[in-house]
Amino acid sequence: MRKFAALTLVTAMVALTPVARADASVTTLRGMSLEQKVGQLFVTYVNGQAADVPHPKNQTDFGVATPADVVRKYQPGGVIYFNNSTRDNIDTPKQIAQLSNGLQKASRIPLLISTDQEMGLVTRIGPPATQLPGNMALGAGRSTQDAEEAARITAQELRAMGVNQNFAPDADINSNPANPIIGVRSFSSDPKLAADMLSAQIQGYEGRRWFDPNSVTSTAKHFPGHGDTSEDSHTALPVSNRSLDQWRQIDAPPFKAAVAAKIDSIMTAHIQVPQIDPSGNPATLSPKIITGLLREELKYDGVVITDSLEMAGVRKLHSDAEIPVLAIKAGVDQLLMPPNLGLAIDSVVKAVRSGEISEQRIDQSVLRILKMKLLRGVMLNAEADENKVDQIVGSNGQRAQAIADRTITAVRNDAQAIPLNAAAPLVVGTGDATTTLATRLKAAKVVTATSPTPQQIQQALAAAANADKIVVLTNNLSTRPAQLDLLNQLVATGKPVIAAATGNPYDVAYGNAKTWLATYSTTTVSMEALAKILLGETKPQGKLPVDVPGPTPYPFGHGVTW
């Protein structure tokens, strides 16, 4: 099957017990050189949409031409896909499947192929893949069955494209409304609700039996919890001021639930937690946090993976050569996206040869990774069926819509503006969501920037003169004064205004609108769910999954219907 002779044993052991999986992993490990073992610890990006087609950035980043050449040269344990213009891995489902298969053919040991398909705000693979509204919307819906179903849909479609590891679900407790990076990626500010939803999603992603062909490895993130920070670890080194007792009460429950659910992997956070580890090191590099809390206190023996090692949060205090070594010494197994893959691999190999890290320690991590690959069936059947991918990906739209229909929260309807019942409605807001909703409502539209210009505000006011009712889609307006100004000026026209928060629900505490809803998402299914409520076709079922502070506060669990 693969070039490693030891894997012949694996292919023959279809009904592996946990003991047999361990034995097969050990057998595979014994056939590996030190460099091959260290390669298994790394998950790298590649540039381009086809495994064997040259991309100029691969030469710059890796010294080779094609994505497959990157795999052949460095023998990494995994590859991660992105939809940005720089790495450009994602186009159509069939193209993704072909890329996945090409990379697997280039690898001596089957690859973990991953992406961040959290759904909602963080979605790497867009339509025609089935889109879902994301974690906070699911938290508003309160249905663990829906959370599990959403994960199962995502897993099935990812696996059809050859993606076998999803960096989801987010396990953070969004206790800080000013958090700039988590927000709606979190299920809730309530630890129990977040833990319950997380457990359900793990079941949906991973299934209950070994080698479910529709399952993927899931990853709870970002340990020990990124929800209390006020900075973005992509650009800074955030600080969480939780005490150990506070961490145990607030941030730990979802991760405890993940451990109890036997989750395949857990991702670290590049944040400082000075009351737990006063060294100043980010959690990713902290033995007190990774070994002390995650391994010893929570008793987790699965795979621990870093967040991206390109991020500023992990690079503030140490060099790119030091970071992988420190992460392994802290208790990490997988190292995600080092900015210089060759340097990172060499630094770990040198640390082993110098005695700074024992080869036994490397073996521990490689065994965890190999067992995880066996558990998900990656060793047995890593490649996607290119002839079936288009039949599977995008086939779950009705199920996704039914889930989204149960997530919208009506916060207030004091003006009785819903149902819409308007001959000439107007929709004002940002991005594609505005167009999607206006089309469904047969309404006029004004599309603005996230921070509307004075000209855009005047355009909206002019359009409002001809409208019976106005729907305003907001997106984090509490941090965007021009958005708040636009909303208040539209309310001041005297026309009935329905405001809907399409990002963080904290918007509902601001402005003069007397009717507020929260969708937590701009996805098409969320806009359709909103339209159904506005038109009176359905009634809102969601409850706030967070406490909303501000000028007009609302408590966790608030929601109205009619």
Quickly describe the structure.
The chain contains 22 helices and 16 strands. The protein has 562 residues and is α/β, with parallel strands linked by helices. Strands 9-8-7-6-3-2-1-10 form an 8-stranded parallel sheet.
What does the model show?
The structure is a single chain. By secondary structure, the chain is α/β, with parallel strands linked by helices. It has two domains: 7-395, TIM Barrel (Alpha-Beta Barrel), CATH 3.20.20; 408-534, Glycoside hydrolase family 3 C-terminal domain (Rossmann fold, 3-Layer(aba) Sandwich). It is built from 22 helices and 16 strands. It has helices at residues 7-11, 18-30, 34-40, 56-62, 67-74, 93-106, 135-141, 144-160, 191-206, 244-250, 252-260, 287-297, 312-315, 322-330, 341-354, 359-375, 389-392, 397-404, 431-441, 454-464, 481-492, 524-534; strands at 42-45, 78-80, 112-115, 117-119, 122-123, 165-166, 217-223, 265-268, 303-305, 335-336, 409-413, 426-430, 444-448, 470-474, 497-501, 515-518. It has an eight-stranded parallel beta sheet. The protein has a six-stranded mixed beta sheet with strand order 11-16-15-14-12-13, with helices on both faces. Helix 2 crosses helix 16 and helix 19 (431-441) packs parallel to helix 22. The longest helix is centred in the N-terminal third of the chain and has 17 residues, at 144-160. The chain is globular and about 75 Å long.
Question: What labels describe this entry?
Answer:
alpha/beta, 22 helices, disordered N terminus, 2 domains, eight-stranded parallel β-sheet, TIM Barrel, Rossmann fold, 11% strand
